[in-house]
Write a structure and sequence with these properties.
- There is one protein chain.
- The chain is α+β, with helices and mostly antiparallel strands.
- The protein is about 15% helix and about 15% strand.
- It has 2 helices and 6 strands.
- The protein has a two-stranded antiparallel ribbon with strand order 1-6. A two-stranded antiparallel ribbon has the order 2-5. The protein has a two-stranded antiparallel sheet with strand order 3-4.
- Strand 3 and strand 4 form a beta hairpin.
- The longest helix is centred in the C-terminal third of the chain and has 11 residues.
Length: about 120
């Protein structure tokens, strides 16, 4: 399951540098699959979706920090717990019920984005 940042976010930015997948972006910032990963060019994601990893994507939120669910692995493969939630001073990094994934799927995403780890 991916993590989502709720609208209680105070835009402190504590979460962004903690994400090992570079899945967290400041509100209104564009994102790419290639940001902070080994992905480049045309790729097929583990869920079967074809994307260009270098293509700029629209911000998911214009108001507060946000997490790209396709890049979020809940820190599986890196840490014991989601680091964004661990450092959030207002506890607004919570499980995203609309993106439920097993630990096996999350680990597969991690290995896909970071095959060298």
């Amino acid at each position: 399951m991916a993590i989502i940042i709720t609208d209680e976010c105070i835009n402190c930015g504590a979460c962004e540098p903690e994400c090992p997948n570079t899945a967290i972006y400041e509100g209104a910032d564009e994102w790419r699959y290639s940001d902070g990963t080994s992905l480049e060019g045309n790729v097929v994601l583990p869920d079967g979706k074809s994307v260009n990893a270098d293509e700029v994507k629209e911000p998911i939120s214009d108001e507060v920090y946000y997490i790209s669910p396709d890049k979020c692995t809940e820190c599986i493969g890196f840490h014991e717990e989601p680091q964004c939630a661990a450092v959030c001073p207002v506890d607004c990094c919570v499980p995203d019920d609309s993106h439920v994934e097993t630990e096996e799927v999350l680990l597969g995403k991690q290995k896909f984005m970071h095959p060298e780890d």
